[in-house]
Amino acid sequence: MLRTVLLVCTALVPALVLAQAGSSLTPRVQIDTSQGSFVVELDTVRAPLSAENFLRYVRDGYYDGTLFHRVIAGFVVQGGGFSTDLTPRQPRAPIPNESGNGLSNRRGTLGLARTESPHSGAAQFYVNLADNAGLDPLPSRWGFAVFGRVVSGMETVDRIAYLPTASLPAIGPDVPLQPVLLQRAFVLDAATPVPAEQPPAVEPPVPPAAEGASEPPPETDGRP
Questions:
Q1: What percent of the chain stands above pLDDT 70?
Q2: The whole model's pTM is what?
């Protein structure tokens, strides 16, 4: 069983709106954290619903002041669902699963977290720390939708990945002992110089417990 990722709370709120005509097909978002910054590029062509969903949360300031609450070295870094006092933030309505868009859960890609229910992804997101093919869809099951990739600052994500973690009753396992704050997320406009893309970082070794994993575990009371 793949040590999973990606269990989040769901909510029933209005459906999301598609991106406005004329906007960039590959918008970039800078994420400032207490461990440094990184930039993600969104794929609005292959994952239009997921990308615009993420952009709307960014523009609304929803992610500002949240935590990266789930960190598993060699697997994923996950955030976007809990405030600094460990209370869950209320997301909008979940969106349809776009995991069949041809984008794979490879190292450095950005995906939409969800519960065991395939169409439950809302606000929480994750960055893959390794090539996690077990999160991709199969003919027999839904996968986890990729909608972007890290184009600058992957070293920041790796720094977060190796922080010591523990289990907290309010959230669950794999919570960083040193809180990792998502201070601010904002869209980089056309006038902002785009950071140069970095060469692919050497992939960190996968912990033995993650080897041979294949699919996500069942939902546990909606907790990550």
A1: 74
A2: 0.78
